[in-house]
Write a structure and sequence with these properties.
Serine Threonine Protein Phosphatase 5, Tetratricopeptide repeat, 64% helix
Length: 700
Amino acid sequence: MGDESVPYFLGEGTTKTYQIPISHLDYKFIEKCTDIKHLEKILRVLRSGEEGCYPELTLVCEKRIERLDPRNRALRKDKPAATASDFTAEEWFDVEKECSKIDEDCEESNSKARFFSRPSLPIIEKKIDTTGMTKREKIFIATREKEKGNEAFATGDYAEAVTYYTRSISVIPTAAVYNNKAQAEIKLQDWDNALQDCEKVLDMEPGNIKALMRRATVHNHLQNYQTAIEDLNKVLSVEPENSMAKKSLQEIEEKLKGLKPVSEPQAKGKKILIEEIEDTEGREQNTEECERRGGDKREQSPDDLSILYSNRAACYLKEGNCSDCIQDCNRALELQPFSLKPLLRRAMANESMERYRQAYIDYKTVLQIDSSIQAANDSVNRITKTLLDQDGPSWREKLPPIPVVPVAVQLHRWDGGSLTSEDKPSTIDITMEKFKRLKNEGNDFVKMGKYEEAANKYSECMKLNTEECTVYTNRALCYLKLYKYEEAKRDCDHVLQLEDSNIKAFYRRALAYKGLQVRKKNMPGILKHGKKITIEEVEEGQFAPSEDAQTHHVAAEEAVPKAVPRRSSQKLRVSEPPNAYDFGQIINALNANKDKAACADLLTATDPKTLPVLLSNKLEGEILLIFIQSLEHYIAGKDPGLAYQHLFYLSKAERFKVVLALLSKNEKEEVQHLFDLLTESHSDQYSLEDLESLKEVYEL
């Protein structure tokens, strides 16, 4: 007997596998054990036979595991492959015969379901009851059904697309919907219905290009070759360069070569396969309008026609007619690919219609062309958050591919045209680097409060690139800080000519208008104090008081920033600011000039209870300090009760605790000195206990 067998007979020791105590291989232990993992190990040891063969104990262990976890993987048993002896006589059959039956059944089911899609879904009614609907409601429903049909067509579900187009026609029959329905029926090879729909379009709009093209396609498949040729000739008479019509005509003529000789072969064009399913509204009068306005055919002036479509799209966007806006943008982009304004307007329209994926693609395309368009950057960030909430972390996988913008289009924004030499890109790169460097220097000057130097840097940037809107809005900000409102207004006007929806330009132009109105109001007050005032008309809107009859232009410029805030502060003695915005503007002007007396007048005219509302969340350390200094030097001695009220309600403002914690030691000493003055004074509006509790709020 070896040493290894001694523990087994003594009931001690562990198994070789899993190190399970030998005492656990017992009926009582297995019936009481609830640890499934441990039971699995015991079962493997029993099945392996390394400790001996115990069939009954193995069966008990399997049943115990089954009671605790019926679907446990340990209960699975290996099943050997079947052999010939495993089958009975009844189970043997002719394999080839059965396989042929299965193939026949599959072919029969496929033939029945060839033109049917999604049979499990409920049947959609093809007619909508419009009883009692207003005209606006009918237009809305018809447009919605048409868009559903477009979406179904885009996904390849042509039968469903036909259903939705039919529903739209039942509400308001339009040529565009009939056209789209005909295209879907062509995809389904439903030639008769497609021909009828094309005929209806041509009854409504004789000469409709798409209807003629699609009717020619139907006649071609119905082998009515001569009729198809007539339709294609009508298309080419209107659009001689239509590549798709040329290609179709050439194919039909090749089919007719054996039947009827063609007298005059058509000129070959560049072969382009165009798949059309865009909407064509009744307003589409492209060829006639172009001939009437320009005297040339559409193909001879695509840029002008693209601008017309883009302008009409802008009108539709203003009206809220997003569908027509998208159609005109599509047409403009067909004539002039990667044009900025149609891309931006189509993106805005798609975003308004909650087509966030299409809008995201257009905005990203715009940024490939010109990355400086702030509206596109903001919209991309906004739509990214929406798509993340809507589709989750994998939202990028659901996006359609973003088109790649040609390099020539990207460079066009900088050089004003196409490249004509190989060394052009290097020159542009140098210009871009210099532009970015000057712009960054201007931004740094703004951060340091050196607005005059920043404006000069931005002006140098404009010499390199006059199309960069950000530079103009930045320089407008500098002019506002320098009280040059007329110059700020001009910069904002220039930006809005390039980007009619630039938010910063609108806001800063509003501030410029406000500044110009303040100067006009202050003009009578200035005239009262001076004997002789000369107004220099070098820059519109600038003026300065002077004692001499001859005033130098530089003196006028220097006097304006100092005079305007001082005059505006005097008006605060009459009435308090009407809103938080005006209050903030006045406080910023007073703080810039450190005018404590004017600040005291402002606080005297302002009801202390309104301070938290007027300050909003704009309380800063400098504002708190000028309030304390004004109360200390001008108000505490005359009216300590008013000073106490201002201190009390000032502590109720937002960010008060944060600003108080950031005060320096010297600034806290000024606050302490103000409280000492109030302690020495007496007022009916507060007691010493009130003052002590307020000091605790100010952490003194």
